[in-house]
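Quick bug: HD-CE domain-containing protein output formatted oddly.
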Amino acid sequence: MLFGIDMTKMNIFMKVSYEKSYSIKIGFCLLGMAHPLEKKLKDCGDSSVCKYSKFEVIKEVLEKVVTSQIPFEKSVLNVQGAYYNDHGKEHFERIENNYSKMIEESGIELSCCEIYLALLSIWFHDIGLWLGRKEDESPEDARNHHHARVKDVIEKLVEKGQISKMDNSEETLLVSICAGHSRKIDLESIAKESSLNGEGIKSRLLSAILRIADSLDIDHRRAPETIFELFDDVIPEKSREHWEKHTFVNAVEFNRTYASIDIVTTFGQRLEELIEQYKLVHWVQEEIKNELQSVKSIFDDYRMPFSHVQLKDYASGMYIKSDIEPSGIVRIECDEDHLDSKTLLELSELFKVHTGELKVYIEIILNKGGRITIPLPIQYNVTSSETLEESIKKICNPLLIDVKVDPTSVRVIKK
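Here's what came back:
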């Protein structure tokens, strides 16, 4: 047992995970694939400061920190805290991938030293969670302050001889860029333009991109389902939704045409699945909107083509228009013991037909006081000549329910 966790379960997961990871890594090596940012830095050659070879050494050291010095189960679960998602090596690699895609989609040109600092910031920004943690400090406190401890970590690694001492200007810039990944830091406090090795550095922009690239590591890989199933009995309720919200996200895409960040999800078919999924995916969308709003002025300055967040259905490829204002609420009051999913779905579809191109909220009010709200984007034309009351009575047994309709509410009441 470790922190109350059954390590037999963990060992089984580690074995499967490492075997899969190993085969994937071999595949990448055989294909000669590398992250685009790293390839660009390598193509720059070795200048006096911004060297690929120097970054490579630092990255290797930090990889060892998050795979060897940090127990695997802790990097994935943050066992003592309340977050239970991946802050390990794969997290950094996914951020690097997001960062690369954002640069590519935006058409922004980065100098060799900017690429160098971008890569270092990706690999250093969370390292304070581990090497920056103070004695007797809780994981929660370490998380709250980790963005401000990059300088301490760098000095610790230099003192131990694990990395070479950085130039003062290099270290100062890196620490500043890393700190900005946290929304506790106002990005306006970071210098807009700096210089390193004679090259201009868009330091505020680099920090803003890091913040968004980090926040966009939100898909199912961030919270592996296998771990969730193994540790379902010990994951606190507070952490459960933080974990589950990742499971519904298939991928994150960047769409220059629509200037959007697209959250791709596969919607379930059953009403209960839809209710839960709408709630969690909408939560993710709102979180990313808030992150994007925090960098808006900076992205506008550099014409970064990411101004809003959209939900996209994986199966159809269609966008879900969830950001328009609701026109009203459909309230369906029902007996909790007779919650008929099929009937409620039919009612939802029916209301779409009668409201046209509008958005409403379907609010299911259970007889014991519980409420479930589903935001429904509606882009249907009015096609029915029947009144809403007449249509509802065709779907529902008229002997069991009564229907009352006003401009913003439909009440389906058991008689």
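Actually, after a second look the formatting is fine. Residues 7-31 form the longest helix (25 residues). Closing.
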